[in-house]
Amino acid sequence: RNYAEWRTRTLHTQSECKTMTCITRKHLINISFASDVISCELTHFINSDKISLEFHFENNIIHATADDTWDCLRNLQNESIKFNINLLCAGLTENIHPSRMSRQMGDGSKAYILKLGFPATKNDLISIFEIVDKSQIVSKEKQDIFYKKWLSSLN
Description:
This protein has about 160 residues and is α+β, with helices and mostly antiparallel strands. The chain is about 20% helix and about 40% strand. Strands 1, 2, 3, 4, 5 and 6 form a six-stranded antiparallel sheet that branches.
């Protein structure tokens, strides 16, 4: 990690406001709003307690927090839907899932492309922020169902 990125940052969430030392990263993502696809900057805050993601859209700050980046992205998608926005990120597609190690030892921003009947390999590892087509985005429930199906397919 680049320690030059460490800094004190004030984070505003819906229920709290506190100052913490964190790493801040920026990701360029696409969002779908109405029939338009728009590029926007997603801010990624990483500290020892939690992960936060946020982006600005039409005078709104859409924000989510979780224990790891993958769960945070999924939470951010749920918040975005309230504004009729879909995030077009690989981490929200059916066959993408991080390993437990990447979630516990890393921040969960890398995940595997899962293929039924095959174990995931290093070649299957991608950033959850990679841009994908709107047709590939699914709900948390569909992701969880596919993951269980993939696990069963390995036996």
